[in-house]
C-alpha cells in the first residue's frame, strides 16, 4: 500500500464518487481539498493517469 494525499482538482461530485469507489479512497476531505488515502501498488498507474487527466493531484507528504 502506498500512503499519499489526494488533492481534488475536479469539483464534479459524480467524478469524485467514481474515483473514490474505484481506488477505495475514504469519504471526506480537509478544508484544503485534500484526502489521505492508502492505494494498492497495482492501482498506482491508473491513479497516476487520473492525475494526468487533471481530476486530482497526487501529493506525498512527509510524516511529522
What does this structure look like?
The chain is an alpha+beta fold. The protein is built from two helices and three strands; from the N terminus they run E-H-E-H-E. The protein has a three-stranded antiparallel sheet, covered by helices on one side. The two termini are 19 Å apart.
What is the averaged pLDDT score? 94
Number of strands: 3
* Major sheet characteristics: 3 strands, antiparallel
Q: Tally the helices.
A: 2
Helix content class: 25-40%
Which structural traits does this protein have?
three-stranded antiparallel sheet, globular, alpha+beta, single chain, 64 residues
What layout of secondary structure does this protein have?
Elements (H helix, E strand, L loop, with lengths): L1 E7 L4 H11 L10 E6 L4 H9 L3 E4 L5
Antiparallel strand pairs: 1-2, 1-3
Outline of this structure?
With 64 residues, the chain is α+β, with helices and mostly antiparallel strands. The chain has helices at 13-23, 44-52, and strands at 2-8, 34-39, 56-59.
